[in-house]
Amino acid sequence: MNLCCWCLQKYPASAAAAAFHGSICSPLPPLGTDLVQQGLPSEVVKWTYLGVCRALSFATGYSALQPKSLDSIIDLQRAETLSSEDLITIWNEYHLGRGHIHASMKRSLYNLLVQRTNPCQHFVVPLWRGSGYTTMFVQARLPHMLITGLEDYKARGTQAAPYLTVTYYTEFASSKDVVLIRGDIVLPSKLEDEEGRRLLETMHSFYLNDERYKLVERFNKDTHEFEFKDVLRALDIPIG
């Protein structure tokens, strides 16, 4: 069932019925050739949870993906007639089970995220997987964000394929106090939908929580003092 039919059944008397149009399940375009050239910390990072100090030399940038514009996903004029609540509900419902991550936030939180990612565009977060975790590398240049496995990034540098791309849509920030968020799972073999959702929530928690953001600042500005075990402790993940 496409979204138009779903909306007609769920909101038969509402303008929400025609707010979204078309399918957004088309595959992502291949990796482009333009590089997001951003300097990364190259100092020695203390990974003391392993009991040793490992030297990490980060490459610069990711190959860029072309995100979908919001007007290719929804009918902006009709969406403007919806309440914030209806818009968020339809946005969330439509993305379920389609290999996409869906979320939203208020304008004030998005502004804080922009303010904090600008000087601190990179971070590392663990993704818990049953009996252990995988370390993921984040690059944020809002309104876009890219997440890949740290080991893949160290091995392939700018040729590393993102596991998850995230786009923040601000078209309704002023009129509805809503920023819509869409994440695309680029490599389903590397990342499941639920894992992508947890990664996005974890990343937000480090940038939007005052205490956790200190670790982000340390990673970007004072890397030689950064210890990954502090990230694990913040998330109550065992240090083995």
UniProtKB/TrEMBL annotation:
GO terms for cellular component: chloroplast stroma; mitochondrion. Belongs to the ATP11 family. The lineage of its organism: Eukaryota, Viridiplantae, Streptophyta, Embryophyta, Tracheophyta. This is ATP synthase mitochondrial F1 complex assembly factor 1. It is found in: Mitochondrion. It comes from the Eukaryota. Keywords: Mitochondrion, Transit peptide. InterPro entries: ATP11. PANTHER family: ATP SYNTHASE MITOCHONDRIAL F1 COMPLEX ASSEMBLY FACTOR 1 (PTHR13126:SF0), CHAPERONE ATP11 (PTHR13126). The keyword Hydrolase does not apply. It comes from Amborella trichopoda. GO terms for biological process: mitochondrial proton-transporting ATP synthase complex assembly.
